[in-house]
Structures are given as C-alpha cells and as structure tokens.
Amino acid sequence: MKKAGIIVLMSFLTVTVINAQQRYEADPVSTVIEWKGEKIVGSDHVGNINLKSGWLDIDGNTITAGEFVIDMNSINNKDLKDENMKKRLEGHLKSDDFFGVDKYPFSRLVITGASAFTDGTATVRGNLTIKEATHPAEFTARVVKEGDSLVYTAQITFDRSLYDVRFGSGKFFSNLGDNAIRDEIHLDVKLVIN
Fold first, then answer.
1. Which of 44, 47, 102, 121 is most buried, by the most CB atoms less than 10 A from its CB?
2. In the chain, count of helices (H) and strands (E)?
3. What domains sit in the chain, N to C, each tagged with a CATH number?
C-alpha cells in the first residue's frame, strides 16, 4: 500500500510539473522587428523584417525555451524616400554581399534559458543563426500583459561580421574610409504572444 501511495504521489508531481509549463505561440502579424544599421560617417538606415513563426515555453514567470524564425526575404527599408534608392538598398541587403537570402531565406533565434522575470524584466539567453553561423545571444526582455496577449520587448545587438556579413566591414577590408559600415546591427523587437 505504501508503494502504491508513492507511485500516485510521483504521478501527481509529474503531472503538476508538466502542467506548470505552457507553450505560447507568437503572433507574426502583430509582432514588429525593426533593424538599424550604422555607417561610420553618414546616415544610418532603418527598416523592418518579419517574423515567420515562433513560440515560447513559459514556466511560472520564467521562459524555459523558445524558437523564432525570421523571414529574411521580408527585409525592407523605411528611411529612404526615393523609391529607386530604397529598392536598391533592399536588393543589396538581400544579396550575397549581406544576407544572401536566396540561399539563406531564414534566420533563427533559439532560446535556451532565462532568468525569472523580476518587475517585468529578465535576462534571456539563446543562440542566433544567420546564414550558416550560430553564436550565443543574450539580451534583456521586458513583458507586459495587454488584453489576452503577452507583449515582450527587447533590444538585441549582434555583430554581423560573425555571420559572414562582410560588406563594408573594417574587419575584412582596409581603406574603406567614409564607406565603412559598423558591424553592430541593432534590433528593436516587440513580440506578441497569444
């Protein structure tokens, strides 16, 4: 009888642990990802890129896992007013000089863990894959409840040179002068989870 009681208790604890963690799907339509690239001298460029799909596993107030797929073909520019210049820049960003979207149509962020949210803020860790390269990423995330959705915001900065995005990089080319482009790309993310 004692053994049966222990088995029932273990089954109850297992079910409780499983039920405590829930998977939430991202809303690609409501999610906004803004990018910013900076020249050493001259104007910066900004634009958007779309989330294709994503999910988070949440246990209490802690993100335990997640995966987000970014549609690299969707990259666009918002700061250029001349339509020809805008299309030219977007085509260049999609070319092999930058992200090579014909060969690498998707980038991926896999969440491997996070601290518990305290006052709506947590540190999130994961791995970012662009082209064929994968490197660790760590950033601060904030969360608020909006209606039936959870809205996470984060600023993520990555070094493009680590992902073989070399155009205009001082790490790979000399004598660039005013044409040098900073290696850091900044992402402002508003992630909507249902």
1. 47
2. 2, 9
3. 20-193 (2.40.128.110)
